[in-house]
Design goal:
The protein is of the alpha/beta class. The chain has 3 domains: 109 residues, Cobalt-precorrin-4 Transmethylase, domain 1 (3-Layer(aba) Sandwich), CATH 3.40.1010; 103 residues, Tetrapyrrole methylase, C-terminal domain (Methyltransferase, Cobalt-precorrin-4 Transmethylase, Domain 2, 2-Layer Sandwich), CATH 3.30.950; 44 residues, no CATH class. The protein is built from 11 helices and 10 strands. The strands form 2 sheets. Strands 3-2-4-1-5 form a 5-stranded parallel beta sheet, with helices on both faces. Strands 6-7-10-8-9 form a 5-stranded mixed beta sheet. α6 links the parallel β6 and β7. α9 packs across α10. 30% of the residues are buried.
Length: 286
């Protein structure tokens, strides 16, 4: 067990600072305060981050930290913190670790007993979700799907019976292919396409998946795709369900998209047992 008391000590820390996703005005006072306070700023692309820092007249040494050097650079950052330096981690836009580098250095910092402090701020997935008009909770964030068409289809097939709103990121050059596969797999579902959030050409499409491609012959910018979950959950035929034991049955429903709690509740109902009995048995075996 590890307990972090972020503000009960003066130890040097790793700060995860959210930055604007388009409009430079979308940054908190606290984020600016932290960026001015730290000794180093680790960033995904120094050319992008320097624009933000210059806009707010912040001058700090930058450390390059991105997908291709995250392990070597991560060790360097941890060593600097151990020497008494505070370090802020930022991505090019939005919140670090969310479809951006960061998870590995967070894990490394925790392993080295370094406090990791989140500085809240902009997030494309949350901004898109709240203006989509689709059910905002619960939701599932999937980020970018696999680039390979066959693997992408397999990922989406596994989500076909998912009951929650699903949020994806996609690049313009893969957008049409992704929407086409989604239409084939999910069928006629409501969706929202939110692009260029907080920028001059911000746009929100609200409609059916099947109609998206007739509107977008071409698309540019940063894209968030939100698709409603299945409105009437239907699960594949389960001819062997009666042959499963409790553990197998719970795990089966989890694989279909239910949370463990929901799966346990469903198994308890089907077996005419109390939820507590199923819960205790399941966790005694795992």
């Amino acid at each position: 067990m590890l307990i972090q008391k972020s503000y009960e000590n003066t130890n040097p820390k790793l700060y995860l600072v959210s930055t604007p996703i388009g409009n430079l005005g979308d940054i908190t006072f606290r984020a600016l305060e932290i960026l001015r306070m730290v000794d180093y700023i680790a960033c995904e692309d120094t050319r992008v981050t320097i624009k933000l820092l210059n806009y707010y007249d912040i001058k700090k040494p930058l450390i390059s930290y991105h997908e291709h050097n995250k392990y070597e650079s991560g060790i360097n950052i941890i060593n600097k913190i151990k020497l008494g330096n505070n370090v802020a981690l930022v991505s090019d836009a939005g919140t670090p670790c969310i479809s951006d580098p960061g998870y590995e250095i967070v894990k490394l910092a925790i392993e080295n007993n370094i406090d990791v402090v989140p500085i809240p701020g902009p997030s494309a997935l949350i901004s898109a979700l709240i203006c989509s008009g689709l059910v905002p909770q619960p939701f599932t964030f999937l980020g970018f799907l696999d680039h390979r068409k066959q693997d992408k289809r397999k990922q989406l097939e596994e989500l076909k019976y998912h009951p929650y709103s699903m949020i994806f990121y996609e690049a313009p050059h893969r957008f049409r292919e992704t929407i086409s596969i989604m239409s084939e797999v999910f069928g006629e579902r409501s969706c929202a396409i939110v692009r260029e959030i907080s920028k001059r050409y911000e746009e929100v499409y609200r409609g059916l998946l099947n109609d998206v491609l007739s509107y977008y012959e071409d698309i540019k910018g940063e894209i968030v795709i939100i698709v409603e979950g299945t409105t009437h959950p239907q699960y594949p035929e389960e001819p062997l369900i009666e042959e499963m034991d409790i553990i197998e049955q719970v795990n089966h429903y989890v694989e279909l998209g239910l949370s463990k709690s929901e799966a346990i509740k469903r198994v308890a109902t089907e077996r005419k047992l109390s939820k507590r009995e199923v819960y205790n048995y399941y966790h005694s075996q795992n």
